[in-house]
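TEACHING EXERCISE
Course module: macromolecular assemblies
Task: Read the component lines below, then compare them to the predicted structure of the full complex.
Student: A.B.
Group: 4
Components provided:
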Amino acid sequence: MGKVTGFMDFPRVAAENVPPAERVKNYKEFVLHLSDEEAKTQGARCMDCGIPFCNNGCPVNNIIPDWNDLVFQQNWKQAIEVLHSTNNFPEFTGRICPAPCEAACTLNINDDPVGIKSIEHAIIDKAWENNWVIPQPPKNKTGKKIAIVGSGPAGMAAAQQLARVGHDVVVLEKNDRIGGLLRYGIPDFKMEKSHIDRRVTQMEAEGVVFKTNQNVGENVDPEQLIHDYDSVILAGGAEWPRDLPVPGRELDGVHFAMDFLPNQNKIVAGDVIKDQITATGKNVVVIGGGDTGSDCVGTSNRHGAASVYQFELMPQPPEKEIKSLVWPYWPLKMRTSSSHEEGCERDWSVATKSFIGENGKVKELVAARVEWKDGKMQEVPNSEFTMKADLVLLAMGFISPQQTILDKFGIDKDARGNAKAETEGENSYTTSRSKVFAAGDMRRGQSLVVWAIREGRQCARSVDEFLMGSSSLPR
Amino acid sequence: MAQLIHDLKNANPSASISVKLVSETGVGTVAAGVAKAKSDHIVIAGHDGGTGASPLSSIKHAGTPWEIGLAETQQTLVLNQLRGRVILQVDGQMKTGRDVVVGALLGADEFGFATAPLVVEGCIMMRKCHLNTCPVGIATQDPELRKRFNGQPEHVVNFFFFIAEEIREIMASLGMKKFNDLIGRSDLLDMQQGIDHWKIQGLDFSRIFYQPDMGPDVSRYNVEKQYHGLDKALDNEIIKKAMPSIEKKESTTFDIPITNTNRTVGTMLSHEIAKRYGNDGLPDNTISVKLEGTAGQSFGAFLAKGITFNLHGEGNDYVGKGLCGGHIIIRPPQHFKGIEEKNIIVGNTVMYGATSGESYFRGIAGERFCVRNSGASAVVEGVGNHGCEYMTGGTVAVLGETGQNFAAGMSGGVAYIYDPEGTFSQSCNPSMVTLEKVAKENVQPKGAKHLNLSDETILKQLIVNHHKYTDSSIAIDILNNWDTAIGNFVKVMPIEYKRALNELHAATIKEVA
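Instructor-supplied answer key:
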């Protein structure tokens, strides 16, 4: 934008990574951020296109062309201000967002898109380094009390927005640490947890009260919450994992990904865990080809697994999408994550049929190839095979929020079992019960961190409007 | 307007002359005037359009929807029985067959599609057409960017097949066999019913759908051609006499009388030359025409290289407009008894937009002399207000007084003003130019030079020519006292031009080193 020919002059350069052989030795982040000079030239690649699709490709509507230009001018201070104006936590998204903005980049039509994510990463790292991220406590308090159930990105975003306009916000977390899936779902090597801690410190200075070990519906009474607070936001995520009810599922060694991943994060944080599920020296099979599966692969490799396989039910996607058909939307294409680079065999169109065990422990896995015809899955005859498996991790997505909490609040659910609430209109984010709002995965089903932040922000505005009659918060 | 259209028609008699009007209230009256001024073609441009290079203010704030302007134009032209003479085109975000049919029903013969076919070819509306950075290789000459262009003619053809198909379907539903039957049938239009919105309450389309009550003899679409009167032009005779030059490049010399009803003389002749030899024209003085009398407007407009017009008499407005290589000499008639340098010899807007060529005027010119000149040279013995306004190139020598606002917006070329009284600085607009002394050749500082020649050489040559062609007494006086006279000249130097010359010079030095 600052340089009209930037996209012709400079190639896309991604932030450098620590080589796989090095990084699997520890749980540290391995994506290094761009140097100032690199960030400048990457920012110069932005074309100031007439209609910046990135702006709407981004769920939080980051004002991307503006901060690209500011980075080109090396005006980092203003860049973080613009970035923070739409995104509460760029340090999260700059690390773990799949960057739908880059898919929507106009340059992506016939060239490599602008490295938006790496620029975002550089901006927020620079801002923390220079102490530009400081608490913004409200000038006046409203005296309104809000309880937020769940401290994931949706809950945190809503909490920060509401605290900054003067409400007394209490965030209730069922686990022992704040962050939800950011804390216990995403491995440290993708995002170190100190990022959450310093946000929590900032937000506490802004007036947010965080309470851990508060399992609403178990040791906290929903009715009491509704009684004690002026409004309640349900932002508890979609944590009900999809199961694989095949023979042998009950065997020891067949686990949900979310039984496997959190423990490692706790150990990195310094906790002592008895009976940790480890992959050390084992033949690991990860079932499910998504991001959670990838995280299982990366963690297994760091444990020192003997072998790691990953199966996906759907067929292998094409290497390249047909841009004229999908741009500016998120394309279905072959993606190799950083965890795959660290060592993993992948296979597609594979359905697991049963697990075979010995002494109650899983030893083998029986699978078959499948074909997809007219949207229906068919087993390929005589394609059954078995393979060694000492640890099977189920990472096949999440069905919906845990139903018990929604039932205990007595709110309506949509057809997919999520808390029912609209995102547009006068009563956006309100559930069927007065004073009770829902945002994030609990409302929309499993999704991205960046969508959670969007919902948290928008829900905060709805709550503010509900409590005060009007709101100065952005939508 | 009529003169402009006549000039253009002379410049290319086989071309249609089109006038594009912004759709807005009152455009009908303007269009009627344009039709009377003999435009072949009128375009009504709606407010939705605009290229990627046009300023946002124009895109957002200019004009009204084309439907409104078109309806008004059609009604006015039909009422004044002018509609049959012109082709009426409408444009401004035409995208569908429905747009075309609505346009036809409101009175258009033709339809301008621009954005939609560009998008079909791959345009992504970056609005960067003017920066040579079009990332899909459309609005650029950069070979690297053009590699990215992946549009195909077939895509555009296919797009228009769809448009035509939709038009055909709508015509069939209206029971129309021929497209011409559709034109001006606004009675077939109606407001869409059943839209329940408060904003619709104030809408009344009856005046857009109105059809003037004229008899069946009054055409509602284009049926005839404008009569431009080219068959009566003096050029027909000149062309006939100059045929050996035009066809065989032989030199011809002849005399011809002229009167002020002979407008735009020399332009059709230039067209004949340009048709055969392009912008190169013929060698200088191949066709030498001596004319006698008072010329009409646009004497020697667009005069091509190789033609010399030597007029004893006087010029009118627009002498040498768009001059492109020809020579024009105008001096008073032989029986003239006044003092030549005190009398007006040519009118206003002389040498407007000239690109190359030479002219010598033995007397004073009117206002706006050499406006937008970009490369021709001219000698004159005085000018009115606004001389050399917006000039971007060429050389002008004024051997007498100038009017106010000289050199306003002048960004290129050089003007030399003979200023023995030292009053010129008061009439010059200094916003974009500096005034300098004209140095003798041996003392002119080294560095970049206008036309790569010293000021003295350029100026002296112009004055020598002026004397040679016009017998100017001022010229001979100046030449006879050259060493003192040169000190009385002021050089008008545009700041931007000087900067460009210096940069060019610095670059050449660097290259040599």
